[in-house]
Write a structure and sequence with these properties.
Number of helices: 3
Shape: globular
Structural class: mainly beta
Radius of gyration: 19 Å
Number of domains: 1
Order of helices and strands: EEEEEEHEEEEHEEEEEEEEHEEEE
Oligomer: single chain
Largest sheet: 5 strands, antiparallel
Number of strands: 22
Strand content: 35-45%
Helix content: under 10%
Distance between the termini: 8 Å
Length: 351
């Protein structure tokens, strides 16, 4: 059982204050994905950030373990700007490439109008301009990871789903697995339609091999690899859906984060929880352990935890997507954040 303590909390300014869309509505940052590549923290909003020199993905250098606000820059390669609704990032097992997934939660069977929501991207660490689309439609000029979309359809097996987790973990040669890694996708929602679904914590995955041109190819069938029930854990107060996956190469463990968003007589409530497990437990289907706070109580995030990054052997970065909720709670002495600000927490693993 892991225990953690809060090192620091704060907000990141992700674009100019007061930025608006063409219709005059205020742009609200909703960070849903984060990864640390060894030098910089890369984050993404699941809503577009307008402007020719902007995108929904942006980066900060880390200085003394914290994001440097003066180092902010957008990732502006065309494929990165084109994709919509980013939900998670991951590093490949060798640490040389970054992967980014969108939600895959909508598609138009009659046209390509919604292809932007169906992307898995890859680029070398430190060189996002060399981004490529993974598993695209074989027809030239058709944008998006549409072959991967078909594989996800088959593996998940329902008309509607939303991908919110992504992680690459080492293969298990002792189990006869010969590949560069196992790519895991976390399913948060599944059901008949976007307004008729249940929250789940389900993982589907496929083994991959890196290609000579810096892309990846799948070497076996995408299928279910794991699932668990967050609500069965003592201390979990609400129904949750998986919101992030993160592999910790320093400790050879997988983190699974889940969040909730409910409306009751007290108004809207959001929050989340964190679990950890060894890769051996992942392979065997054993239950993950819920992460605790410094007092030995279940760690419950005050905000809707959507992104998780491993910074080093003992520190974790948690990013929140509070949608239109502007309250900051204990993160800041101010009552509310600006629409351009993303709240975050840095945790230390203490045992």
């Amino acid at each position: 059982m892991l225990r953690t303590e809060v090192i620091t909390e704060g907000t990141l300014t992700c674009f100019p204050s007061g930025l608006t869309y063409d219709d005059g509505s205020l742009v609200n940052v909703e960070v849903s994905a984060v990864v640390f590549d060894g030098q910089r923290l890369i984050l993404a909003s699941d809503k577009p950030i307008p402007g020719e020199s902007r995108s929904a993905a942006f980066a900060f250098d880390l200085i003394d373990g914290l994001p440097d606000p003066d180092s902010h820059r957008f990732l502006t390669a065309e494929a990165i700007r084109r994709a919509v609704k980013y939900e998670d990032f991951a590093l490949t097992v060798d640490g040389r490439y970054i992967l980014a997934t969108t939600g895959f939660d909508r598609i138009d069977d009659e046209s390509h109008d919604l292809n932007a929501y169906n992307h898995l991207l890859i680029w070398p660490v430190g060189d996002p301009d060399r981004v490529q689309v993974v598993d695209p439609d074989p027809r030239d000029g058709v944008e998006g990871s549409l072959e991967l979309r078909r594989k996800l359809d088959d593996a998940i097996g329902v008309p509607y789903y939303k991908i919110e987790g992504l992680a690459a973990v080492p293969s298990r040669p002792d189990l006869g697995e010969e590949s560069d890694g196992l790519l895991l996708f976390g399913v948060r929602e599944q059901g008949r339609a976007h307004d008729d679904f249940e929250y789940v914590a389900r993982v589907v995955g496929v083994h991959y091999r890196m290609t000579v041109d810096g892309n990846l190819e799948f070497v076996d069938e995408l299928c279910e690899r794991y699932r668990f029930q967050p609500s069965e854990y003592a201390g979990v107060r609400h129904i949750c859906g998986l919101s992030s996956l993160e592999y910790d190469p320093y400790n050879d463990r997988l983190y699974l984060m889940a969040s909730f968003e409910i409306e009751d007589e007290e108004g809207e409530q959001t929050g989340g929880y964190l679990w950890s497990m060894s890769l051996a437990d992942l392979s065997s289907g054993a239950s993950p352990s819920i992460v605790e706070d410094a007092h030995g109580e279940v760690l419950e995030f005050e905000h809707k935890a959507e992104g998780l990054a491993v910074l080093d052997t003992e520190r974790l970065f948690v990013a929140y997507d509070n949608d239109r909720d502007m309250t900051l709670g204990r993160i800041d002495e101010r009552d509310e954040r600006e629409a351009c600000e993303a709240p975050y927490t840095v945790l230390r693993i203490i045992d």
